[in-house]
Automatic annotation (TrEMBL):
Domain named Nucleotidyl transferase: residues: 12-275
Organism per entry: Serinicoccus hydrothermalis
Family per similarity comment: Belongs to the bacterial/plant glucose-1-phosphate adenylyltransferase family.
Positions of region (Disordered): 85-106
EC number: 2.7.7.27
Protein name in the entry: Glucose-1-phosphate adenylyltransferase
Domain of life: Bacteria
Annotated keywords: Glycogen biosynthesis, Nucleotidyltransferase, Transferase
UniProt domain Glucose-1-phosphate adenylyltransferase/Bifunctional protein GlmU-like C-terminal hexapeptide: residue ranges: 302-376
Length: 414
């Protein structure tokens, strides 16, 4: 384990984001970090587990949308040993009436969100501010990254990953020299020159961060009006480019699997990667992925059931065929039913002889006998537009066809 100063004060902020609109019907009634992954975890488990493994106990979780959907799951930070008398876990939500317009209310991007928390950060007075997103799958030795950050006397460290240039269009693209010093960043470029991107894990020197946030706010609001939107937006728009110009921003490469699962295609692909053995996040005994224990009996496969490259959660019962799919807790696949290349979250019933392909099915959904949901060719790489999304507590009638790319709102009946 990397050696850090014994008196190092670290504050971590997990940005759990807004509505997560790219996930469409799956985040209508839940915060995106509450989305399940791998049958027994939620997305928020990954940053919180990385922090717990690094011994970081002062953790704030910033939630703006459907915060109640996370509250019971987070349990005051108990599953990650963050429930402390002093410090520990803190949930941060938007407030009205606590300050000026650009301090109150909902933020407009992750840099804007930090600006609204700047006084609380200043009072906490950490030596290192660690900011993580809550919709990524990863496992990382944060102590090693912090040690490198301090050794370099960095004002900001970006954890980076290599991805395809097509996907890089949606990210902050990073260029750095041989020593890892970042020389330029591009925020969501239409034609990326590189596939090196920021993973939305950032380490900041707090005094420099707060200084730049205040300076940028003044620069972006030359009129001096007390407007609600600071204009700071996301990190890649103004903050990180400004820090790069100061010359002490460094890149730290992600050492294992990393994926932003904020879109349906990426979420489904991450589960496919898991089943293909490409996801190493559960392979580190020194960095276990923690979360609330899910009660229930073990999953069961009947005499007529068949699992091929599949994973099932506790309490699930399979009498049909499940291929390259992940079933959450208490899912029932009846005799003659087929589930392929799909993720079924929890308490889903797939009746006899129904077919589900290339779909993400939310909790509590009932799919009637002989129904067909989605129909992309088995095993193919599908786009967001081709994945069927079924909102929670929906009912797909017997013999009904739900085409590829369909979106059923929560509580729908077809």
């Amino acid at each position: 384990m990397s050696t850090l100063p014994a008196d190092l004060r670290v504050l971590a902020i997990v940005q759990a984001g807004g509505q997560g609109s790219r996930m469409d019907v799956l985040t209508r009634e839940r915060a995106k970090p509450a989305l399940p992954f791998a049958a027994s975890h939620a997305l928020v488990d990954f940053p919180l587990s990385a922090l717990a493994a690094a011994g970081i106990s002062d953790v704030w979780v910033s939630v703006q949308f459907q915060s109640s959907s996370l509250d019971s799951y987070l349990a005051g930070g108990r599953p990650w040993d963050l429930d402390r008398t002093r410090g520990g876990f803190r949930r941060v939500t938007p407030e009205e009436g606590s300050g000026t317009a650009h301090e109150d209310g909902f933020s407009h991007g992750n840099a804007d969100g930090l600006f609204r928390m700047r006084e609380a950060i200043r009072l906490e007075d950490p030596d290192v501010l660690l900011v993580l997103s809550a919709d990524h799958i990863f496992s990382l030795d944060l102590r090693a990254v912090m040690a490198e950050h301090l050794e370099r006397e960095a004002e900001c460290t970006l954890v980076t990953a290599q991805i395809g240039r097509q996907e890089a269009r949606h990210k902050m693209v990073v260029a750095h020299d041989r020593r890892g010093r970042v020389t330029e960043v591009w925020n969501k470029p239409s034609r990326p020159r590189y596939g090196t991107v920021a993973t939305e894990i950032f380490l900041y020197r707090p005094d420099v961060l707060l200084e730049e946030l205040d300076r940028l706010r003044r620069e972006l609001n030359r009129t001096g009006e007390d407007t609600h939107d600071t204009g700071l937006g996301d990190f890649g728009e103004h903050l990180v480019p400004a820090l790069v110009r100061r010359g002490r921003v460094y890149a730290a490469p992600m050492t294992g699997y990393w994926k932003d699962v904020g879109r349906p295609q990426a979420y489904l692909q991450a589960h496919r990667d898991l089943l293909a053995g490409k996801v190493d996040v559960f392979d580190h005994p020194d960095r276990p992925v923690l979360g609330p224990a899910i009660p229930g009996v073990p999953g069961w496969v009947g005499e007529d059931g068949e699992l091929v490259d599949a994973m099932i959660g506790s309490g699930s019962r399979v009498r049909g065929r499940v291929v390259r799919s992940v079933l959450g807790p208490d899912v029932e696949v009846q005799r003659g039913a087929v589930v392929e290349d799909s993720v079924l979250l929890s308490e889903v019933v797939v009746e006899a002889h129904a077919t589900v392909r290339s779909a993400i099915v939310d909790r509590g959904v009932w799919i009637g006998r002989d129904a067909v949901v989605g129909a992309a060719p088995p095993g193919t790489r599908v786009t967001d537009a081709a994945i069927a999304l079924i909102g929670q507590d929906s009912r797909v009638g017997r013999g009904t066809t739900v085409p590829p790319g369909a979106r059923l709102e929560p509580g729908s009946t077809t």
